[in-house]
Design a protein that fits this description.
single chain, 363 residues, four-stranded antiparallel sheet, 23% strand, globular
């Protein structure tokens, strides 16, 4: 009997699903665009309901040709490192100045927390050593500070759970509130090393004014931490299985950030006809992952601290290895800007909507 696996990739503008054979051959794919709300300049918000509904739609499409769903043995998720807010009933809580609960995701490229990031960096806390000496305004601690300071009544006071979008997807699939080591070490300031173990640093959160997280023993941001690929919960819940068109208890893998999933997929690739390149160890390879942003991902067997380079992050991409990363936030997004400001953009957009072709000839 043939065996299949489903992979889900939630990017900035769309969600994609693929059906794969057990030896890695892609059978089919499906794509669905995502909603985006831009309530203010540099504010980007999404809806977790829309993300999950779109995910269910594309998964159902790719598995539709598999008559016996028992042949599908597992599903894995990756997504952007966007911040999801949920209340005590695990329903959406607004992160928007509009107060609409539908907009409960601060998208990774949202730059509302510039002031908060600057305040964090002025502290020179030891936690910053793992992010090259400075925390980006795209990471989660400054965004949490912004939520507390600007939407206290509508968000901070009501929210009981904050999680990365990859962890939200495994939660929806399994009901488990476990978190991925990938997301926590890369975007949340979680500390992990072979020498000192894994832990949240109380003094860091207290120093940035988020002592509530410490008092709550970090229940709001995660205490059950798994490495990417580990099983989550007891597999798909009955509800999630029905929504995805799969079988209950189908295995669900611990999630990854989208760039890191791309890095994992490419760092082990071989080059046809080049035995020398194929013989190089993983630490001698540098995947470049391109999308809305561009990420350069390197791994090492020991922790390497480099000013201006994010990391070292233990087991963020390859288990047991440290990941270091750099890149450019506006890469594909910059190309979008160039295209969308071209005088012919409107003509091409309208023409594409009325044809099945990807090529349009302009007069």
């Amino acid at each position: 009997m043939d065996v299949f696996y489903v992979s889900v990739d939630v990017g900035t503008g769309s969600v994609r699903a693929g059906l794969f054979t057990s030896d890695g051959c892609m059978v089919c794919t499906a794509t669905c665009s995502l909603e985006m709300n831009q309530s203010e300049p540099h504010f980007y918000e999404q809806s977790s309901r829309n993300v999950w509904e779109s995910t269910c739609s594309v998964v159902k499409e790719v598995v539709s040709g598999v008559k016996n769903r028992e042949q599908i043995r597992g599903i894995g998720f990756d997504a952007t490192c966007s911040l999801v807010a949920l209340d005590g009933a695990l329903s959406p809580v607004t992160v928007s100045l509009s107060g609409e609960d539908n907009w409960n995701i601060v998208v990774w490229m949202d730059h509302r927390a510039e002031v908060q990031a600057a305040r964090i960096n002025a502290l020179s806390h030891p936690v910053l050593r793992n992010v090259g000496g400075k925390m980006s305004l795209e990471m989660q601690p400054p965004k949490l500070m912004w939520l507390k300071e600007h939407v206290y009544e509508s968000c901070w006071k009501k929210a009981r759970h904050f999680m990365d979008l990859p962890d939200f997807l495994t939660f929806k699939a399994t009901g488990s509130l476990s978190r991925s080591m990938c997301s926590l070490v890369c975007k949340w300031g979680y500390q992990a090393s072979e020498e000192n173990g894994c832990y949240w640093d109380d003094s860091f959160w207290q120093s940035i004014g988020l002592q509530e997280l410490v008092s709550d023993a970090y229940a709001a941001i995660g205490t059950d931490v798994k490495t990417p690929g580990q099983p989550c919960g007891q597999g798909l819940t009955v509800t999630a299985a029905e929504q995805l068109g799969l079988v209950a208890e189908t295995a669900v893998a611990c999630s990854m950030i989208d760039a890191h999933a791309g890095g994992l997929g490419s760092i082990g690739c071989n080059v046809d006809g080049d035995p020398f390149l194929n013989s190089l160890p993983l630490r001698c390879r540098l995947p470049v992952i391109c999308g809305t942003s561009t990420c350069h991902m390197a791994i090492s067997e020991r922790s390497l601290f480099v000013p201006g380079v994010w990391g070292p992050y233990l087991s963020a991409m390859v288990p047991g290895f440290y990941t270091s990363e750099g890149g450019q936030s506006a890469a594909g997004k910059l190309l979008d800007h160039v295209i969308e400001t071209h005088p012919a953009y409107g003509e091409v957009r309208d023409a594409l909507q009325s044809t099945s072709s990807d090529v349009v000839r302009c007069s």
